[in-house]
TrEMBL record:
Gene source species: Rubritalea profundi
Family as reported in the entry's similarity comment: Belongs to the P-Pant transferase superfamily. AcpS family.
Name of this chain's protein: Holo-[acyl-carrier-protein] synthase
Cross-referenced Pfam families: ACPS (PF01648)
Residues that bind Mg(2+): 9, 58
Coiled coil: none
GO molecular function annotations of the record: holo-[acyl-carrier-protein] synthase activity; magnesium ion binding
Described purpose of this protein according to its UniProt entry: Transfers the 4'-phosphopantetheine moiety from coenzyme A to a Ser of acyl-carrier-protein.
Principal location listed in the UniProt entry: cytoplasm
């Protein structure tokens, strides 16, 4: 196995909170899947969890070397949380195609948040 790419991102939680307040469902529907929305909305401070998922999606896009766009959209990634707390990502659409074309077999992610910031990193791993 080899590392295909590494990505990192930091986002101000307040920026995500303001976007949710200003744009509401239009913002959330553009960036987050139904599963992500259900999880975040069930939390005490949803905007903190949305910020973490925003950061990890950016980190994943950086690990792919594509950014968010044609090869990988916001909705091509669903960030899940295991009962143990471990985060994982499930790919669909163009993101899944990109992984297959580039022989990426796994993407390991980590995310965290503090009072003002959410941060995440991602490592894309190939099978070759």
């Amino acid at each position: 196995m080899q590392i295909f790419g590494i990505g990192i991102d930091v986002v101000e939680i307040e920026r995500i909170e303001e976007s949710i307040e200003k744009f509401g469902d239009k913002f959330l529907d553009r960036l987050f899947t139904a599963e992500e929305r259900a999880y975040c909305d069930s939390q005490k401070r949803p905007h903190v969890n949305f910020a973490g998922r925003f950061a990890v999606k950016e980190a994943i896009a950086k690990s792919f070397g594509t950014g968010i766009g044609k090869e990988l959209s916001w909705l091509d990634m669903t960030i899940l949380r295991a009962p143990s707390g471990e985060p994982s990502v499930v790919f669909s659409g163009a993101g899944k195609v990109f992984m297959e074309q580039n022989k990426i077999v796994s993407v390991k992610i980590s995310l965290t948040h503090a009072k003002q910031y959410a941060a995440a990193n991602a490592i894309a791993i190939t099978g070759c």
